[in-house]
Negative transcriptional regulator, PaiB family (Psychroflexus sediminis), 195 residues
Amino acid sequence: MSYLPDHFTASDWTRIQSFIELFPLATLISHFEDEIFTSHIPFIISGNKLLGHINKENPQFQHLNNSRVELVFHGGDAYISPAAFTTEELPTFNFAKVHVKGKVSYGDEQGLIKSLMEMTDQMDEDFKLAYTHPKIDRLKHFIQGFEVSIDSFHGRFKMSQDKSKAHFDKAKSLLKESQTQRLKYFLNHLQYYTG
């Protein structure tokens, strides 16, 4: 049995790009002086690069420029119980993730502002970020825009594609139900911070 066989992987850019546009928040992973750093950063696609920004107070900012990184974009995931099927199965986890590897380059202030406006345009139909918005002038000194030149990418979409069509459809339904239930439970138990 090979790890992540072809029916669980995707390597065509069109599918990867669509996934990133749907799930733009990535885990940014870097390595510096024998320590691993992670941050959660939204990205937009610009040609063969990904554009993001990072708070300059974030410890990852200090070493990120010119570093090789890995980004993990997260779709859904769910435990799949054998009890949900009439056939004999083993417990498993289904998931949808995209991995991108590349190299970071810091940009200038104009590029940062442009990328913030483009990101808002792509993610928000109801709000238009203007170049002259007063908060941009105040915040631009605290964040650093950057681009990731893409070296490699692949999708890991494990959704019981190796089973029957009915099994596959059931697994997708279970993932959707699981995501909804877990998110509802989490939000119902999340405490508001009062200081």
Q: What stands out?
A: Residues 37 and 60 are 6 Å apart (CA to CA). Helices lie at 13-22, 61-64, 109-123, 134-139, 165-189. Residues 6-189 form a domain with the Pnp Oxidase; Chain A fold (CATH 2.30.110.10).
